[in-house]
Amino acid sequence: MGPYDWRKQGPVATLSSAWSGIRLDIYTDQDAFQLYSCNAQNGTVALKKTQGVRGQGDDKHRFPRTIPKYGCLVLEVQDYIDGINNPEWMRGRKQIYEPGGDAYVLQAKYRFSLTREHGNDEKKLSR
């Protein structure tokens, strides 16, 4: 089995919400992927007025609203974490860069779409 070809073999990760219908497909040429929740959020980072669900006038849903603990996800495409400290993994050519050397090129595509309640039809939002 050869290297993963992200242009032919599909997304490395898909995240979707049955509630909102929003779907995110992530494509990349990177060999690692990291997902974690926002455990450090403490309710002080405000949402933009265009974010979140607006309430019917009650105080709980008025702005400014904030991101609660565990209220977001971080999705990172990357090479092996700590590969630079584990030479046996042979990640050096992807993790060591110096002046005059080759530039690091990371390719990734984040495709957002809306899924319909019934069936598999999707409306593309961006490419």
From TrEMBL:
One of its GO terms (molecular function) is aldose 1-epimerase activity. It comes from Ustilaginoidea virens (Rice false smut fungus). GO terms for biological process: galactose catabolic process via UDP-galactose, Leloir pathway; glucose metabolic process. This is Uncharacterized protein. Signal peptide: none annotated. It comes from the Eukaryota. InterPro entries: Gal_mutarotase_sf_dom (IPR011013), GH-type_carb-bd (IPR014718).
